[in-house]
Amino acid sequence: MWHASVLTLYPDLFPGPLDASVLGRGRADNLWALDTVDIRGFSDNKYGSVDDTPAGGGAGLVMRADIMAAAIDSVPRNERPIICLSPRGAPLTQARAHALSEGPGLIALCGRFEGIDERIFEARGIEEVSIGDFVLAGGEIAAMALIEACVRLIPGVLGSASSVEEESFEGGLLEYPQYTRPREFEGRAIPDVLLSGDHQRIANWRREEAEKTTRTRRPDLWERFLANGPIRRDKNKEPK
Ligand code: SAH
Fold first, then answer.
1. Does residue 138 line the site of ligand 1, with CB under 6 A?
2. DSSP secondary structure string, 37-86?
3. Between β-strands 32-38 and 2-8, what pairing exists: parallel, antiparallel or unpaired?
4. Full residue range of the structural domain in which residue 10 is found
5. pLDDT of residue 165
6. What local confidence, expressed as pLDDT, does residue 238 receive?
7. Which of 18, 105, 170, 216 could potentially form a cystine with 3 if both were Cys, beta carbons 3.0 to 4.6 Å apart?
8. Residues 139, 24: one domain?
C-alpha cells in the first residue's frame, strides 16, 4: 500500500484536508496510508527544543541536523524516498507526482523557522522539493500538497481514470475550459460546439482551447510543448 510518513513539529495538522472527499475514502479503503512523527519527541533537552541559532549569525533559528537524523532514523524506510519540503528544492511537477505515486510512497520532512541544517540532506540522501516560488511559514501545507498530488493518481482513488488523463499538465498543456448547466448564466452562454453532440468537433475545439490557453497564460509551458511534443508516459520508466 502507498504509504506517506510525515515528520513535523505539528502532527495534529494531519490528516487535515487529506481526509476529505475521495482521498479520505481512499484511506479508509486502504488504498493509501499516512502516519506522522513528532520531531519534538527527539529533542535532547527538557525544553523540547529542536533548533538553535544560525552559525555565522543572523535572524531566526535553524533545526538541528542531529535531532532531524534521530527522527528520520526512527521511521521504517521501506525503499521510500525522503523528501524535504523547501523553497530551495526542485519545483514539484505533475510528472514527479506520477513517478512518486507509482512507487512505495514517501517520507516527508517539514521545516519550520529558517529551515534545517544543510548537513542533513547529504547525510540521509534527502531530496528537496518546492511547491512554488514563494515562502510558507512551514513545510506542512507543502507536504499536504505533495501527498495530495500523488494520492489522487493512485488507481481507485478518483472515480474514473479518464478524468486524470485530460487534465492540465498531463499532455504538456493546460486544460480546456469546462462548463455545466445552466445553459445560460447572467447572459453568458455555453459555447455552441459543446452542445452540438459532434464528438470530433468537440475534441478539436477542446484541443484548440487547450493550446490557446497554454500559449497565452504559460508561454514557458508552451515553448516546452513545442520543443518536446506531448508528454508520453511509459509505465516502466520515470517520466522526465
Ligand atoms: N529561510 C528559508 C525559508 C524557511 S520557511 C528560505 O529562505 O529558503 C520554513 C519552512 O517552510 C521551510 O523549511 C520549508 O519546510 C517550508 N516551506 C516554505 N516555503 C516552501 C515552499 N515554497 N515549498 C515547500 N516548502 C516550503
1. yes
2. EEGGGG-SSTT---EEPPTT--SS-EE-HHHHHHHHHTS--TTPPEEEEE
3. parallel
4. 2-151
5. 78
6. 45
7. 105
8. yes
Looking at the structure, tell me whether residues 137 and 24 fall in a common domain: yes
Q: Is the CB of 54 under 6 A from ligand 1?
A: no
Rounded to two decimals, what is the model's pTM? 0.94
188 and 113 housed in the same domain: no
Name 185's bridge partners.
188
Please say if the pLDDT value at position 151 is more than 60.
Answer: yes
Where does a domain end: 97, 118, 151? 151
Atom from ligand 1 closest to the CA of residue 131: 23
CATH of the domain at 204: 1.10.1270.20
For range 230-239, the mean pLDDT: 58
Same domain, 104 and 69: yes
pLDDT above 70 covers a percentage of the chain that reads: 96
Question: Domain with 88 in it: what CATH number?
Answer: 3.40.1280.10
Given 127, 151, 175, the domain boundary residue is 151
Query: 117 C-alpha vs ligand 1 centroid, how far in Å?
Result: 13
Residue nearest to atom 2 of ligand 1 (CA): 114
Burial class of 58 by CB neighbour count within 10 A (0 to 12, 13 to 18, 19+): exposed
Q: How large is the average pLDDT for residues 113-142?
A: 98
Q: Which residue has the cell 529551515?
A: 115
What is 177-224 written as a DSSP string? Answer: P---S-SEETTEEPPGGGGS--HHHHHHHHHHHHHHHHHHH-HHHHHH
**CA 66 / ligand 1 centre spacing (Å):** 20
In this structure, are 144 and 187 located in the same domain? no
129 Cα–ligand 1 center, Å = 10
Average pLDDT along the chain:
95
